[in-house]
Amino acid sequence: MPETITKKVLISFTCSKIKAADHYNEIKDAVEKASHNLFVKHKVIVRYPLVRVVNSILITLEIPKDKSETFRIGNHLRGIANYLVKSNREYYDQYYVGNQLISYVDISDFSIPSSGFINEYVKQISTPAFGSQNKHSL
Question: Among 9, 82, 89, 120, which residue's beta carbon has the most beta carbons within 10 A?
């Protein structure tokens, strides 16, 4: 197996009225669908289980080192939003903000403490003032 780079990505709904952690099963199904294409086309592996963190879901990706510089997470995670809308358009259409349903924060560059305070830590790093350069929309 080739050497890989690990990326940790928090995904959440762009609209604050809906919480990703409350829709864990739907998001898990969407990630499973997207993960097949990620592996076949790019040899990117999604590590399970997905983890609920505050109101978001943490996804761990293993990206081949030779593709890590050019691999754009947002372009590929967009499939998650597409799957959610395809599976239940009537429900998810009401939660778009502009043309965005899901946003993500790449937290790979942050060291997460091993204590039980991960939820508070993630709240701090995902606030716009602290992590705005890493927040992206899908």
Answer: 9
